[in-house]
Specification:
The protein is 37% helix and 31% strand. With 107 residues, it is of the alpha+beta class. It has a 4-stranded antiparallel beta sheet with strand order 2-3-1-4.
């Protein structure tokens, strides 16, 4: 299993809009494209204005295929267009790819 930790530096004042977009739309579109979200966090230090979440993927190749389908999904493209009419929600995004250490298996 490949885990992808996604870190978003959110545009100031746009956190709730981003959270709403995930809650109302993006997660279900992820699922439709075989992308499993395991958890979401907001930084405990609100001044950092960061959102974190983890996706599970069987491997990097499938991750890339699923993301391509997601990014080109007409429903996603329209939701993104509408939710960003007043400007972007995310200033910067980073992905960190992780796998379980050989001695540890999370059941």
């Amino acid at each position: 299993m490949l885990y992808e930790l996604r870190i978003y530096d959110v545009v100031p004042g746009r956190m709730q809009a981003l959270l709403d977009r995930f809650q109302n739309d993006a997660i279900s579109i992820f699922e439709r494209h075989g992308m499993k979200v395991t958890n979401f966090w907001v930084d405990a230090d609100e001044a950092k204005n960061r959102l974190y979440y983890v996706l599970e993927h069987p491997n990097l190749e499938i991750r890339n295929q699923n993301y391509d389908r997601f990014r080109n999904d007409p429903e996603w493209m329209e939701i993104r267009r509408v939710t960003e009419m007043e400007g972007p929600l995310v200033a910067k995004q980073e992905s960190i790819f992780l796998k379980n250490a050989s001695f540890f298996e999370n059941n």
